[in-house]
Amino acid sequence: MIEFNLPTNLTLLRIALIPLLTVVFYLPWEYSNVACMLIFLAAGITDWLDGYLARKMQMETPFGAFLDPVADKLMVSMILVLIVQQQASPYLAIPAAVIIGREITIASLREWMAEIGQRAQVKVSQLGKWKTTAQMLAIGMLLYREDLLGIPINYCGYGLLYIAAILTLWSMINYLRAALAVLTAK
């Protein structure tokens, strides 16, 4: 049975923010970029809060453990597609494709490893957390796009997206190595 507790509801809220962000992204409004960045920030806060509350209040559920990374991957993938469409450039499309491709690969790998009882071998690592931090900062900056106090925020976002893509490849290689070690040991 699926349990809808506060952490799970926060994860569902994060998923519900995806279409809202998409609509706001396309609004012909001078501050849509700021609104999108704030919606993305709210989604990031719910991501942190749902995990914190689930652990603190001992409300971790199998459904919540499944839904949380799905919500993250949906949000990141959708926003990267929007940003690439808006700022059409191979310099942006390449790291976005690397990030989205890695997310699909690792999600599939985790599912497969879970099927063979080895899910723990591909759990989230510290490197994955660094990748996520760089990725989230990059996305926030790319959504905002405007210079701030003379700082070229959009270019900083590009730089962080490349750092995230490099960390993405590095973490994917580590996950694949861990999985390969399990599979060749059998």
Question: How would you describe this protein?
Answer:
The protein is mainly α. It contains six helices and no strands. Helix 1 packs antiparallel against helix 2 (32-56). 28% of the residues are buried.
List the helices and strands and how they pair.
Blueprint: H1 6-26, H2 32-56, H3 62-86, H4 90-115, H5 126-144, H6 153-185
> What is the H-and-E element order?
HHHHHH
Helical region count? 6
Give the strand content.
Answer: under 5%
Shape: globular
For the largest beta-sheet, the strand count, sense and barrel status come to:
none
Q: Mean of residue pLDDT?
A: 90
Ranges where pLDDT stays below 50 over 5 or more residues in a row are: none
**N→C terminal distance:** 34 Å
Please state the oligomeric state of the protein chains shown: single chain
Coarse structural class: mainly alpha
Rounded to an integer, what's the Rg over CA atoms?
A: 17 Å
Helical fraction equals over 70%
Number-wise, the strands total 0
Compact summary:
With 186 residues, the protein is mainly alpha-helical. 80% of the residues lie in helices and 0% in strands. The model has no long low-confidence stretch (mean pLDDT 90).
Could you list some keywords that capture this structure?
single chain, 0% strand, 186 residues, 80% helix, mainly alpha
